[in-house]
Amino acid sequence: MSNKMKSCKNCDAMQEFSEGTGPPRKKFNQPTMYDHMESYCKFKRMKAHEEELQAAKEKCIIQNSKFTNLTIEPSKLDECLRNFSTQNLVKFKMKSNENEEFEYEAERRFLDEVARKNANSVDSLINISRSPINCPVTACSQTIGITSVLSHFLRDHKQCFPVDFQDIDGNRRSVLIFDESIFNYNENICLGILAYGGKDSNEGNRPAQAGICRANSFLPEKYSHFFHHLPILIMGCKTSLNFILADKELGEQLFDPEDKSKDIIILWLATVETTKTIHCTITAFDHDMTSSRSTIVEVRNLKYPQNPSVFMADDINYLMLNRGEINILSMNEQASIEIEIFIHEFDD
User: Looking at the structure, do residues 143 and 104 belong to the same domain, yes or no?
Assistant: First the structure.
């Protein structure tokens, strides 16, 4: 009786088996179960490499500057992959640091493509702080991520703290109306939120695509097309000249809520950290457009304090209306005050 061992049929044909009771001696290097497993693992590694290469090609095509948005129709994807060779992929990968983590590499490649003409902008965007910020609205004060500012105001402030929302670019203005009665002393309110789309209406040159800011996240489906816009908050606060004194305790002692002669309204714009300074023109005028106050300022960074009694001491990026100007623009509190906003993005 043969002492044939269980093995591959093709391998058995190569072996000679003894007729006795002793174990067969292998003349050839017959594959064992471990050899088969090694071949299987090698096949898996090759398959995984092919899948990784295919996925990388798709990412490179989607992030290629030839396309104006980040989506490709499925019917066109196969054609793009056929035209996108492995050499193209290697050249594309050489733009990033191979030793960095995958997320960092993907972000770096994307930013190199959309902001390749401004290398400093790319480096600055990567170095932008990702630390969360506090909502500047006094009645809210939630902690929010820097990419969730627009989402926070669209989701949370639409219901609890109604706020106007407008989509603008460098060629359009924003006009808002407010009454002095909506303010409480030393409480910040958001008069409106702007989704700034860039210097022009070109959909391929939005702020996030140009490397000016990070893209928005967690947007409601209705507002998903504002993914690359820059959120800008129109802030306002009513306070008193007493509260901007260096001696805060003295200011509180001198404050008299019945004395409105020292009342002031502070208007300013705030946004997330950007790689370039964004300017704006703030103009406050009356209903008949006979009187106005205007200033050109920088849009303030939300990572810094938004309390006027704190930042007014060493910052000039705001419009201040004193009691006399408030009375003129509101026609002695008989009419609303209108404000006009223009966003300016100057070339470096």
Answer: no
> Which of 109, 117, 71, 107 lies closest to 92 in space, CA to CA?
109
Closest CA to 137 of 194, 193, 195: 193
Sign of CA dihedral 166, 170, 171, 173: positive
- DSSP code per residue over 167-230: EE-TT--EEEEE-GGG--BT--EEEEEEEE--SSS-GGG-TTTTTSSPPP-S--GGGGGGTTPE
Q: What percent of the chain has pLDDT over 70?
A: 68
For the segment 239-280, what is each residue's pLDDT rounded down to a tens digit? 988 888 877 788 788 888 788 888 999 999 999 999 899 999
CB 308 within 8 A of CB 270: no
CB 166 within 8 A of CB 229: no
Smallest CA-to-CA distance from 72 within 60, 57, 81, 62 is with 62
Number of domains forming the structure of the chain: 2
- Closest among 147, 233, 241, 249 to 193, alpha carbons compared: 233
Residues 259 and 151 in one domain: yes
Residues 87 and 173 in one domain: no
Domain end residue (candidates: 127, 145, 178): 127
Question: pTM of the predicted model, to two decimals?
Answer: 0.65
Tens digit of each residue's pLDDT (9 = 90 or more) over 3-25: 445 555 555 555 555 555 555 55
**Of 127, 156, 189, which closes a domain?**
127
Task: Indicate if the pLDDT at residue 169 is higher than 90.
Answer: no
| 192 contacts 203 by C-beta, under 8 angstroms | no
**Which stretch of 67-71, 98-102, 274-278 has the lowest confidence by average pLDDT?**
67-71
User: At a CB cut-off of 8 Å and minimum separation 6, what does 82 contact?
Assistant: none
Same structural domain, 295 and 175: yes
pLDDT value at residue 89? 52
E strands along the chain, which residues? 133-134, 143-144, 164-168, 174-178, 189-196, 230-240, 263-271, 279-285, 292-298, 300-301, 319-322, 337-344
Per-residue pLDDT reduced to its tens digit, 293-325: 999 999 999 999 999 989 998 899 999 999 999
